[in-house]
């Protein structure tokens, strides 16, 4: 078939390909960029206005629930 030269070539390819990919993808600058980009994508910085809107919505829901509870207590008495 191909002989020992083909086998040596295949073995070199089998060993070189994963090592080359490992070397390429584990460069510090690529790793730093990937980690920081992924962190910002998963945990975007919060804005003050969004935080205030969220708190206001929670307060509004709590007030509605309290009013329902008060009405239910008045009806029982």
UniProtKB/TrEMBL annotation:
Q: What is its main location?
A: membrane
Task: Write down a Pfam family by its short name.
Answer: Pet100
Q: Where in the cell is it found?
A: Membrane; Mitochondrion membrane
Instruction: Spell out the InterPro entries in the cross-references.
Output: Pet100 (IPR018625)
Query: Is the keyword Secreted in the record?
Result: no
Keyword Iron-sulfur annotated: no
The leader peptide range reads: none
Q: Which family does it belong to?
A: Belongs to the PET100 family.
Protein name according to UniProt = Protein PET100 homolog, mitochondrial-like
